[in-house]
Amino acid sequence: MAQSNKFSNEPVTTVFSWTVKQGNVQVFERMMHDIHKVARTFPGHMGVTTLQSPTRKDSFQTVLRFDTTNHLEAWLSSPIRRKMMKAMGNIAHIDTAVKATGLETWFEIPGQQITPPPKWKMVVATFIAIYPISLLFSVFLAPYIADWPVWIRALFLPVLAPIILTYLLMPFLTQRVLKRWLYDNTES
Predict the structure, then answer these.
(1) pLDDT value at position 103?
(2) What is the pTM of this model?
(3) Candidates 2.30.30.30, 3.90.1150.10, 2.30.30.40, 3.30.70.100; CATH matching 12-102
(4) Helix, strand, coil: what percent of the chain each, to 5?
């Protein structure tokens, strides 16, 4: 994973994997809701979600995003978070914590700790994914919304593209189509 000092001015995502002690799932969810509520008040907070595993009811993942590593570190080392995490330690424990910055979150391979590809390869792969979205938008959607106010038309691509990229195209490209090229360390 990337070192936090190298990418201190880029958005950063941290994923925590939790195992909850038997009989404490509802308490964990309530406490996690309270922690999320406090985290949202910290500068640079960009969102946090806790998801329960579909196969193991005692297993959760928290995905936390901040605009910079410094803001993330301020939250992670804050006295209020330490106090809340100490209480959380009675009902659950953190199995892993993984940090990633910027575009590299699109270039992770699930279950593997890898070095992200060089930035120029990330740019090429992202272009390959964004171009068809832009083309399809221009051909199929733009003609139908041409009379709408420009500020509404301008919303379509930034709202739809990240969803399509994050959940469909980038996992397909980075984990299947371009995997060998992206992670071939001889071309750095």
Answers:
(1) 54
(2) 0.52
(3) 3.30.70.100
(4) 55, 20, 30
